[in-house]
């Protein structure tokens, strides 16, 4: 599942309209927001602001928020995870990205709201629109700074400065108008200790490592608002945020933590006294702001390190001369990302449990289809949960399962709803992207299946994606390498066929924390907050290919960064990956003729290992064993390709690379089945063999234009 999204926006001639200027007629799903808006505007005027911006974030910049915090959803009626609402005294608009256009068209109260299809031609950016509205409004614009990121605040203010305006911080106005009877209750479940047998390290050890880092940078104190960092640092877990074992909290940690003990802010009635972490001063959650103010004005505290992701509310309380600048990642993030030995063992062990659940589910699904019973996407994900729950110390899914059949698999962030769930059939691909939270780890695994005879293009795309997975897993690189330098390895084989995909290849994975964590990642775009890969980190390896309205492929393994050898030349430490996921690939979707000999060997070795580990653990479940055995049986080269098999050729990785311009193997004669073109795919004018059809249809500019946009969702 993804976090860094290169969104593929597809414009066809019927879909180039810009902002939706009230062309809709309200439907029955759409909520009538007239009263909400008039109440909000009344509060805005009371506060002396003319425009109010409502984000979907909670106070902690959480990836998932609890229902109580879904202010933007309630104000607009739109429930997609990404969207920002702007209400002025005369109009209201919602910005969302292409993943959510359809959902927003359905849900947004179009009598009162403009739908701003972000990055479509003719659609103003939120900040440009804010400036032009503010230019015509006497009262200043405002936001609630606990929900506003410092980076947004800074860019908006920079733009507003040109018209002589400035954002005004205001209290949470939605809070004032959301009737208690309509608002979901806050989730405030018990907070419990994350036992040392799973955590592998005491709070004191973690504080020591964190404060060493703080001292190294010359800071005296850090202020933390990220919920995963607090849960990790204090060995505590909660259950207030969907898919994440988190509880709302802040922390202030001083470099001299043994004398000046760290301050932890939680709802004290959620934390039983016998669960109090040792050596920590506890305060009620509501005390955070006054304690932060005291910290910020304490003359003994000279340098405060905050993450670039803290809210503007926090930043605004810290005098500029006390900030560690430039803002960077929190000191906890990198330490947490490099797992200790117990955490690493947990991450590896639970992959086996998760794979057992996945194989039992796969066996069940295959059995249903063979028996002619129909299974829809929702039912399939519900059944997966049944098997996940059978695994020891399973807690809950780590994100909403993506269970997608046929053309739905092409929708990257698809989430099936029971009433519209599609059937899983033997004639189409089935993509299952699911993850678990166990007490000893977090997982995130994707497999794309086919239960009948896949089309050539599906096989070709699957194999190209798989080659990317294998080449990433096979990478060797010196310490200090950033994930962005490896991204190409996951796409190179797809590129040979003119294919690519609109998301990153890898995100860090937490340890019974968030399924997405930094500071490492594998994605091509530059981010100033990306940090180099290091041993003991875990990351996903998930290339894909999506052909809209037809099919989608994604394969995702979880991998661990481990030490390779040191260079015998200059003693540089090298790193490599270790794939920890143990789940077979889909044999029926593999086009062996595209693989190099080395790739084929890797698959066979992997399947041997998967079978060895899982077979004994699945005994008694014939359906699961069948599903396992049929997929892990040795794959041989087809006899018809003896003369042009990958093993017969060169050292080049590319049996299918046949162009003279882009392949080191160009001087060899390759007879591989895909060697149809004699030029680079983009300029190919040759009679196309079936493998090239995919590229031709996608590249045809008269039909579709692809625009690649980087959205940094963190
Ligand atoms: C929405 O509610 C307002 C106030 O209750 C009402 O005047 C208006 O007619 C409603 N709009 C629609 C489309 O039902
Ligand atoms: C702001 O309004 C003034 C006066 O109407 C206009 O001249 C100016 O171009 C506007 N500026 C922007 C940035 O819209
Ligand atoms: C919210 O809490 C109140 C009391 O604190 C309770 O009466 C009410 O039923 C709860 N609402 C929901 C939706 O759980
Ligand atoms: C804290 O870390 C330092 C540096 O790694 C180490 O020397 C020291 O023993 C540690 N102290 C404790 C109490 O763990
Ligand atoms: C703290 O949590 C308890 C439930 O554990 C809840 O009843 C109480 O209202 C919460 N207090 C605050 C200030 O939110
Ligand atoms: C912070 O403390 C100072 C005095 O120490 C006080 O003037 C100011 O109002 C406080 N700010 C907040 C937001 O509490
Ligand atoms: C600053 O440190 C000194 C000496 O350690 C101490 O006496 C003083 O109380 C501290 N000041 C504050 C505001 O904590
Ligand atoms: C899909 O299956 C679920 C669970 O069995 C069921 O509730 C739902 O109605 C089904 N959806 C459709 C469209 O048939
Ligand atoms: C490391 O070096 C040893 C001995 O030189 C060699 O056998 C081994 O294959 C190397 N390991 C890797 C991962 O390159």
List the defining traits of the structure above:
714 residues, alpha+beta, Creatine Amidinohydrolase, Chain A, domain 1, Creatine Amidinohydrolase, 3 domains, six-stranded mixed beta sheet, five-stranded mixed beta sheet, 19% strand, globular, disordered C terminus, binds 2-acetamido-2-deoxy-beta-D-glucopyranose, Peptidase_M24_C
Give a short synopsis of this structure.
The protein has 19 helices and 31 strands.
Content-based structural category: alpha+beta
Known CATH architecture of the largest domain: Alpha-Beta Complex
CATH top level class name of the largest domain: Alpha Beta
- The DSSP helix count reads 19
Read across the widest sheet, the strand sequence of neighbours is: 5-4-3-2-6-7
Largest sheet: 6 strands, mixed
> Which distinct ligands sit in these coordinates?
2-acetamido-2-deoxy-beta-D-glucopyranose
Distance between the amino and carboxyl termini: 14 Å
Strand residue content: 15-25%
Averaged pLDDT, please? 88
- Total discrete domains: 3
Q: What is the CATH homologous superfamily assignment of the largest domain? A: Creatinase/methionine aminopeptidase superfamily
Q: How many β-strand runs? A: 31
Low-confidence stretches at least 5 residues in length (pLDDT < 50)? 4-21, 641-714
Q: Judging from the principal axes of the Cα atoms, what is the shape?
A: globular
Rg calculated over all Cα atoms: 27 Å
Q: In CATH terms, what is the fold-level topology of the largest domain?
A: Creatine Amidinohydrolase
Helix content: 25-40%
């Amino acid at each position: 599942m993804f976090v860094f999204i290169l969104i593929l926006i597809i414009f066809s001639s019927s879909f180039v309209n810009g902002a939706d200027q009230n062309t809709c007629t309200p439907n029955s799903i759409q909520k009538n927001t007239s009263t909400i808006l008039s109440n909000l505007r009344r509060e805005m005027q009371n506060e002396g602001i003319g425009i109010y911006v409502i984000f979907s974030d909670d106070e902690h910049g959480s990836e998932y928020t609890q229902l109580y915090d879904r202010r933007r959803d309630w104000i607009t009626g739109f429930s997609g995870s990404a969207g920002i609402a702007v209400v002025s005294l005369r109009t209201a608009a919602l910005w969302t990205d292409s993943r959510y256009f359809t959902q927003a068209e359905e849900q947004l109260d179009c009598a009162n709201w403009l739908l701003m299809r972000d990055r479509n031609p003719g659609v103003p950016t939120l900040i440009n629109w804010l400036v032009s509205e503010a230019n015509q409004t006497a009262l200043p614009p405002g936001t609630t700074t606990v929900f506003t990121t410092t980076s947004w605040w800074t860019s908006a203010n920079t733009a507003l400065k040109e018209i002589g305006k400035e954002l005004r911080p205001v209290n949470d106005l939605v809070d004032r108008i959301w009737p208690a009877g309509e608002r979901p209750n806050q989730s405030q479940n018990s907070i419990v200790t994350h036992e040392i047998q799973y955590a592998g390290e005491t709070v004191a050890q973690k504080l020591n490592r964190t404060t060493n880092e703080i001292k190294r940078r010359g800071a005296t104190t850090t202020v933390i608002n990220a919920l995963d960092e607090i849960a990790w640092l204090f060995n505590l877990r909660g259950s207030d945020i969907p898919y994440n074992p988190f509880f709302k909290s802040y922390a202030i940690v001083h470099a001299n933590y043994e004398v000046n003990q760290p301050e932890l802010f939680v709802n004290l009635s959620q934390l039983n006294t016998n669960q109090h972490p040792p050596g920590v001063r506890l305060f009620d959650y509501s005390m955070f702001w006054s304690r932060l103010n005291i910290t910020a004005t304490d003359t003994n505290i000279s340098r405060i390190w905050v993450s670039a992701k803290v809210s503007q509310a926090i930043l605004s309380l810290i005098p500029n001369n006390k900030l560690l600048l430039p803002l960077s990642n929190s000191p906890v993030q990198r330490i947490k990302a490099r797992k200790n030995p117990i955490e690493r063992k947990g991450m590896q062990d639970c992959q086996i449990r998760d794979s057992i659940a996945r194989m039992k589910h796969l066996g069940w699904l295959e059995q249903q289809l063979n028996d002619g019973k129909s299974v829809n996407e929702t039912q399939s994900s519900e059944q997966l949960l049944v098997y996940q729950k059978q695994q020891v110390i399973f807690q809950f899914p780590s994100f909403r399962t993506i269970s997608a059949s046929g053309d739905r698999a092409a929708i990257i962030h698809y989430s099936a709803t029971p009433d519209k769930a599609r059937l899983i059939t033997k004639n189409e691909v089935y993509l299952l992207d699911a993850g678990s939270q166990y007490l000893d780890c977090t997982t995130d695994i994707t497999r794309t299946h086919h239960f009948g005879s896949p089309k050539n293009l599906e096989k070709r795309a699957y194999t190209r994606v798989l080659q990317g997975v294998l080449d990433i897993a096979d990478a060797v690189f010196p310490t200090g390498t950033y994930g962005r330098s490896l991204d190409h390895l996951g796409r190179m084989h797809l590129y040979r066929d003119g294919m690519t995909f609109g998301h990153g290849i890898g995100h860090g994975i937490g340890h019974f924390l968030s399924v997405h964590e930094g500071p490492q990642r594998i994605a091509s775009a530059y981010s100033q907050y990306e940090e180099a890969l290091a041993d003991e980190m875990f990351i996903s390896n998930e290339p894909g290919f999506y052909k809209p309205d037809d099919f989608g492929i994604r394969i995702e393994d979880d991998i661990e960064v481990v030490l390779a050898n040191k260079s015998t030349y200059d003693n540089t430490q090298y790193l490599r990956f270790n794939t920890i996921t143990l789940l077979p690939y889909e044999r029926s979707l593999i086009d062996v003729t595209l693989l190099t000999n080395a790739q084929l060997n890797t698959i066979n070795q992997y399947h041997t290992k998967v079978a060895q580990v899982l077979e004994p653990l699945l005994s008694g479940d014939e359906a699961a064993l069948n599903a396992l055995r049929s997929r892990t049986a040795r794959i041989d080269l087809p006899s018809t390709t003896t003369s042009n098999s990958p093993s017969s050729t060169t050292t080049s990785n590319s049996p299918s690379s046949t162009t003279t311009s882009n392949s080191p193997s160009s001087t060899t004669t390759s007879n591989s089945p895909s060697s149809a073109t004699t030029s680079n795919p983009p300029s190919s004018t040759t009679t196309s063999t079936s493998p090239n059809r995919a590229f031709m249809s996608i590249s045809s500019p008269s039909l579709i234009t692809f625009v690649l946009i980087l959205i940094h969702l963190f």
